[in-house]
Design a protein that fits this description.
alpha/beta; Rossmann fold; pyruvate-formate lyase- activating enzyme; six-stranded parallel beta sheet; about 40% helix; binds cobalamin; binds iron/sulfur cluster
């Protein structure tokens, strides 16, 4: 049987990274079936185009995975596929929480033939076998022999055959630039950000987050060996292709068990498996200097930190009191000393927020080492404690907000400001954190660093806003360059003079410091963006 795994585009931004679930399920598919992957963010397709593809390719089963924000699109795609007679199975966090919605058992239309509840590592092979026999059941849940729910162990993690998977659709380098960039350094003709997980689960239970409910509060890890081998495979592939691969460790809290994270990072270093990586780690776990040394030595370049708010009352309200705004600066400075920078995620529209929260937050941010701040709105995702609290209090203004997804729009009224005021705060945050002046200041703040670091922070800032915020498009990009021409000319001038290349810092030389997002070509990030990376509406992670 030929199987299509499909991830709908999020309708606003172009993802800069593919979704891990597709590769994982592909690797877990029983022998004898062919699996095709399409990521709508990389290959945008409308409903009729997908239906036609499924018919022409003789696909026998389609698997669709989606977050809440893409679920409306996922349902439309599923409807079109089912209309041509091909069964659809859906999985992921949204349909796990609202299976009745997907199966039409809530009085609405049916969108899926079957739903995989929770983690599908063990149920996917059963689903495929049942579908091949024409005996799909409505729901599949991971249970033990006694029928009790169980979370899959990650000890026997499948080998994802990175050496042979076609990654063409995930190359962030535009085709036109490939011949030229192939000759730069070790080769930049391809650049891909690949998701890798080293563990699952987070016990913290922040009120807006689905992770503790979905993955459970017991944390499970892969073996160090299996993670190291995966990195070695990726590294070998980038060498053969003369391209670049960076890894996004998608664990919700990569250092949730500091002892284990250190041991993994040591093993990565010992095996020479370092690649440039980014990971999500909560601020409280970054106090440990030895951990920071290992992060830097193992290839860590960016750490995503869910700061959420600089107001301890807000943090307490959403059960994230373990975040201590008083120590944010110290953590960021310690990271920056090792040339590791932070993506700092904030949520506005929290119950103790008042007008001016964006400027108050930015005032703090400006005192920190330069990084990539991101701003989102508090969003009640289905089945989270936040959703239940707001529902009980009658505060949801759009209880089924996912049915008509509107980017950057609240679905409940904050306590101390209006919805419109909260929207304005988010716009203010993005506009001011990424203004030409703010970009120039970020470059100046690294005045004692090698030119490469300064160029990288600048490029990262230029591109990054585009991942989240709908400001791009070709014309907007040209405008952006024009607005930042002074900083661009200055950096080019310094590069031409050459004398700063080694800088005055004692940092280890690094051909592509900082990189990751900073190396994502403009065209990719430029399309119409507008969401937030991880977890900031609810800022998820860490
Ligand atoms: C990496 C990540 C991202 C990446 C993008 C996704 C990517 N390209 O990988 C980035 C960082 C950009 C991102 C952004 C956002 N994210 Co995010 N992200 C994650 C994260 C940390 C890991 C995802 C992952 O790969 N997990 C590991 C895989 C193995 O798990 P999985 O995807 O759930 O898949 C398993 C099952 O669900 C199931 N399954 C999944 N799909 C399918 C499909 C089929 C057919 C089947 C059978 C089974 C199946 O099988 C898999 C194996 O067990 C998750 C949290 C988490 N731990 O999952 C949040 C998470 C998915 N993100 C979330 C959110 C809210 C966001 C943002 C909206 C945050 C924001 N406000 O900006 C943005 C939206 C971005 C966008 N533009 O769309 C929420 C989604 C909740 C929900 N109900 O939708 C999560 C769960 C975190 C949270 N705080 O609750 N995110
Ligand atoms: S927001 Fe981060 S720290 Fe909080 S529960 Fe979710 S994954 Fe854990």
């Amino acid at each position: 049987m030929k199987i299509l795994l499909y991830s709908p585009d999020n309708g606003v931004t172009r993802n800069f990274m593919p979704h891990l679930w597709m590769f994982l399920l592909q690797a877990l598919t029983p022998a004898g079936h062919e699996v095709v992957l399409i990521d709508g963010n990389a290959q945008p397709m409308g409903e009729s185009a997908i239906a036609q593809f499924v018919r022409e390719q003789n696909i026998g089963l389609v698997g669709i995975g989606a977050m809440t924000r893409m679920i409306a699109k996922a349902y439309r795609i599923a409807d079109a596929i089912r209309a041509v007679g091909v069964p659809v199975v859906m999985g992921g966090p949204h349909v796990t929480e609202l299976a009745d919605e997907a199966l039409g058992r809530d009085g609405g239309p049916r969108h899926a033939d079957a739903v995989a509840l929770g983690e599908a590592d063990e149920t996917w092979p059963l689903i495929v076998n049942d579908a091949a026999r024409g005996e799909l059941k409505e729901t599949y849940a991971p249970v033990d022999e006694a029928g009790k729910e169980r979370k899959p162990s990650l000890k026997a993690y499948p080998v994802i055959p990175w050496q042979s998977i076609s990654l063409d659709q995930f190359n962030l380098v535009p085709k036109l630039a490939t011949p030229l960039l192939n000759r730069v350094g070790e080769g930049w003709g391809t650049f891909r950000i690949i998701p890798v997980e080293s563990g699952r689960g987070c016990p913290y239970g922040c009120e807006f987050c689905t992770v503790t409910g979905f993955f459970g509060d017991s944390i499970r890890f892969r073996t160090n060996e299996s993670v190291v081998n995966e990195l070695l495979l990726l590294k070998a592939r980038s060498r053969i292709e003369q391209g670049q691969i960076a890894v996004f460790f998608i664990d919700d809290n990569f250092a949730i068990n500091v002892k284990r994270t250190k041991s993994l990072l040591r093993d990565i270093i010992a095996a020479g498996a370092q690649v440039h990586w980014v990971a999500q780690i909560s601020a409280n776990l970054l106090r440990d200097e030895e951990l920071l040394d290992l992060i830097a030595a193992s290839g860590g370049k960016w750490v995503f930190i869910g700061m959420e708010s600089i107001d301890p009352t807000n943090l307490k309200d959403v059960n994230k009191g373990f975040n201590k705004p008083g120590e944010y600066a110290m953590v960021l400075e310690r990271l920056a000393r090792r040339n590791v920078y932070a993506i700092t995620s904030f949520i506005f529209g929290m119950d103790n927020d008042t007008v001016g929260v964006a400027e108050r937050t930015l005032k703090q941010v400006r005192t920190w080492p330069p990084g990539l701040p991101i701003f989102g709105l508090l969003t009640p995702l289905p089945s989270t404690p936040l959703y239940k609290r707001l529902e009980t209090a009658g505060r949801l203004t759009r209880p089924k907000h996912w049915k008509e997804f509107i980017p950057f729009a609240m679905a409940h009224t904050p306590l101390k400001m209006t919805i419109e005021e909260a929207h304005e705060e988010v716009k203010y945050g993005w506009a001011h954190a990424y203004s030409p002046q703010a970009l120039a200041q970020a470059v100046d703040a690294l005045d004692d660093q090698p030119l490469g670091y300064r160029v990288n922070i600048f490029l990262a800032r230029l591109c990054f806003r585009g991942i989240y915020f709908p400001m791009m498009g070709r014309l907007a990009w040209v405008k952006l360059i024009a607005q930042n021409r002074r900083t661009i000319f200055r950096l080019m001038w310094e590069a031409l003079r050459g004398h700063r290349t080694l800088g005055r810092s004692h940092a280890a030389p690094n051909t592509f410091p900082g990189l990751i997002v900073s190396s994502v070509p403009a065209e990719i990030i430029t399309s119409e963006v507008g969401g937030q990376i991880s977890h900031a509406d609810p800022s998820p992670v860490a």
